[in-house]
Amino acid sequence: MVASVLGAGVAAGLLLMACGLRRIPRGQPRRQTAALTREQVTRLAACLAMAAAVGLLTRWPVGAVLAGVAVWTLPRLLGADRAQQRAMARTEAVASWAEMLRDNLSAAAGLEQAIIAAAAVPPAAIRDEVTQLAAALRAGVPAPEALAAFRQALADPTADLVVRALAQAAHRQASKLADLLTELAEVARKRTSVRLRVAAGRARVRTSARVVTVTTIVFAVGLVALNRPYLAAYDDATGQLVLLLIGGLFAAGFAGLTRLGRVGDTPTPVRASVDIREPS
């Protein structure tokens, strides 16, 4: 048990060292390192408590590690797909932001002023990114560099289209940018509706994955609690290696179930009917 805890501490230390040595590319704004949220602290405490309980009950170091990993990862499998919900919210926010830019272009003196004006009341899902973009423009950062950093921060296919149009308009004052922003906003909302339909179709797969996962866990816990002599073969070092292999196979199976129920990116074909380039 002590060896497993020390091993976990060494792994965490190496991970923190790798994060500290990581360099930020030139031109990309440095982000403040966020502290652990209350939810993450609670999950970490639950992982450590479960690992300690399983280790004391079974005397299996591998079992303790597997139990802690299960407590950390299973809520993502059994719970709602928060990443998918966040992605759809960001895509919808990009559509709203494009419409805000379109409305501000007529009243603002230029593209940069329109972006700064839109940052006054940004959509909630992309508030931080839009605020950083406006702050970079106020600080005198060239619009193409600020837009490139904004594009990397969002990492959204629809945002790439909007930023590409804005970057081209920054080089040449285009009069049809407002029409293109309107079309891109419609594309973003169509993409969101498609992902909603796909998510509804994947709901049955996610339900089946939850049933399989819960059944497997209940069966394993029942064996440990009700028929301990049946699992005596895992008490020695060879048994622990076999248990590690079995745990890896189950982890791969759970990961496969998660991927089956996950909604990937569903690109919507874009046929831009508006060209932002001025006629020569």
Can you describe what's shown?
The chain is an all-alpha fold and 280 residues long.
Poorly predicted tracts of residues = 25-30, 266-280
Strand content: under 5%
Number of strands: 0
Largest beta-sheet details: none
Main structural class: mainly alpha
> What's the order of the H and E elements?
HHHHHHHHHH
Helix content: over 70%
Give the oligomer, counting copies of the same chain as homo and different chains as hetero. single chain
Count of runs of 4 or more consecutive helical residues: 10
* Rg for CA atoms: 25 Å
Shape call:
elongated
| Overall pLDDT level | 76
N/C terminus separation: 75 Å
Would you kindly provide a brief summary of this structure?
The protein has a domain at 84-194.
Which terms would index this structure?
280 residues; mainly alpha; 73% helix; elongated; disordered C terminus
Note the topology.
Blueprint: H1 2-21, H2 38-58, H3 61-78, H4 82-105, H5 111-118, H6 127-138, H7 143-154, H8 157-171, H9 177-226, H10 237-261
